[in-house]
Amino acid sequence: MVLVPPSVTRLQALQKTASQIFMTTFNPTNARTGNKVLRQRLKGPTISDYYVRTNITVAKFVKGFNKMRAALIENNTVDERAIGNPLVNFEEEQRIKENEVRRRRGKGPPKKGQGKRATSGKKR
Q1: Which family does it belong to (predicted)?
Q2: What torsion do the CA atoms of 111, 116, 117, 123 make, to the nearest 10 degrees?
Q3: Which of 6, 25, 52, 97: disulfide with 10, CB 3.0–4.6 Å?
Q4: pLDDT level of residue 98 (50, 70, 90 thresholds)
Q5: Nearest to 59 by CA among 36, 87, 31
């Protein structure tokens, strides 16, 4: 009895059946699919958990500190001289001053209902 090696189509059918049974991908052309990378554990959650999540901005910090300072002074918990001056957000102060200057020159935002879109259209 002479043993004949199985044909290529028969081997591919066997591979396909095995991949279905063992839930692996069937890739007869041996093309690069990226499955090796896709099977790896995701790194995103681990990395994001490593760093502290803070959504605090300078403006929020200044506001919170000044609120806490005012509460302490109001309750006579701490002397005003011991706590120091209230914090100032210089960027916000600068923005407010620039807006005041613009308004005085007539370059500020229009009053509500007086803008470009409100005035265009039907002319009465």
Answers
A1: Belongs to the mitochondrion-specific ribosomal protein mS33 family.
A2: 100
A3: 6
A4: very high
A5: 87
Question: Rounded CA gap, 121 and 100, in Å?
Answer: 30
Within a 10 A sphere around the Cβ of 20, how many other Cβ atoms?
A: 10
Q: How far is CA 32 from the centre of its chain?
A: 32
Q: How far apart are CA 17 and CA 21, in angstroms?
A: 6
pTM across the whole model: 0.39
Strand ranges inside 1-124, DSSP E: none
* Cβ neighbours of 72 (radius 10 Å): 15
Contact 61, 44 (CB under 8 A): no
- The string of pLDDT tens digits covering residues 36-54 is 888 899 998 888 888 877 7
For tokens 């099977």, the residue is 39
